Amino acid sequence: MEEKKARILLCEDDQNLGLVLKNYLELNDFDVVLERDGRLGLAAFQREKFDLCLLDVMMPNMDGFSLAEEIRDIDPDVPLFFLSAKTMKEDIIQGYKLGADDYITKPFDSEVLLLKIKAILKRNEELNKENENKEFDLGSFHFNPKLRELTQNGQTQTLSPKENELLKMLCEHMNDLLPREQALKKIWGSDTYFNGRSMDVYIAKLRKYLKEDSSIEIVNIHGNGFRLVVPTTAS
C-alpha cells in the first residue's frame, strides 16, 4: 500500500519563490497547496487538513502573524513555520509567541528547510504512535481506543471507527475545548455543513453511551466545539 504523503500549506506572496519552493517540496514527496495571501490561506486551512504550515509573514489581505492566530484557534497542534524577510528580534519573538515551531529568515537554504520539516513531522509521528496506545479512565468508564472498547462494570461497548476517533479526540482534550473544525478535518476530512451535522449525530451517540455516569458530560460550546467534562480525583 502506497504511503500517504504529508500535506503542507504554503502561503507565500512572492510568486517565483512560492512556485520554486512548492516544486522542490513536491519533488521530495510532499503534497503542497500554495496560496498567495493570508485570506486564501485561511480558507484552504478551513477547507482541508494539513500536516504542517509554511507562512510568509508579509502578505496582502491577511499577514502571516494574523493567519497563524486563526490557524491556532482551529488546530493548536499543527506545526507552523514562518518564512520572513523580517529579521528584527521583535518580529522573531512575536512569531514564537504565536506558537511557531520555527522562524526562518530569507534568504534560506531549501535543503535546511526540508530537513527541519522532516524532523518535526517525524517527531509528531512518534508522538501520535505513543498516543495510539494510550487508554483513558472516564469516571466509571474505561476507554481503550486501540480496541475501540468502552467498558463500565464489566459491560463493553464496541465503538464504530468514527465514534472511536471522536471520543479519542475528546479524551485528548479532556476538560478543554475540542474545536469543531479540528475534529471535522481529522475524522471527516473537511469542515462542511453536512459533515458538521454528521458529527452532531456521533456526539449524540457518545452522550448516550456515557449517560450511565452522570458525572460525565459532553458540553456543546456554541459555535466553537465540544468539551468532555470529567471529574478529576484529588491526589
Protein described:
With 235 residues, this protein is an alpha/beta fold. It is 45% helix and 22% strand. The strands form three sheets. It has a five-stranded parallel beta sheet with strand order 2-1-3-4-5, with helices on both faces. The radius of gyration is 20 Å and the shape is elongated. The mean pLDDT is 90.
Topology:
Blueprint: E1 7-11, H1 15-27, E2 31-35, H2 38-47, E3 52-56, H3 64-74, E4 80-84, H4 89-97, E5 102-105, H5 110-132, E6 136-138, E7 141-144, E8 149-152, E9 155-158, H6 161-172, E10 177-179, H7 180-188, H8 193-210, E11 217-221, E12 225-229
Parallel strand pairs: 1-2, 1-3, 3-4, 4-5
Antiparallel strand pairs: 6-7, 7-8, 8-9, 10-12, 11-12
Helix pairs in contact: 2-3, 6-8
Which structural traits does this protein have?
235 residues; alpha/beta; 5-stranded parallel sheet; 4-stranded antiparallel sheet; 8 helices; 12 strands; elongated
As laid out across the biggest beta sheet, the strand order is 2-1-3-4-5
The number of strands is 12
Average pLDDT across residues? 90
Tally of contiguous helical segments: 8
Structural class: alpha/beta
- Span from first to last CA? 47 Å
Helix residue percentage: 40-55%
- The arrangement of helices and strands along the chain is EHEHEHEHEHEEEEHEHHEE
Q: What is the molecular shape?
A: elongated
The low-confidence parts are none
Give a quick account of the main beta sheet: strands, pairing sense, barrel closure.
Answer: 5 strands, parallel
Approximate strand percentage: 15-25%
Estimated radius of gyration: 20 Å
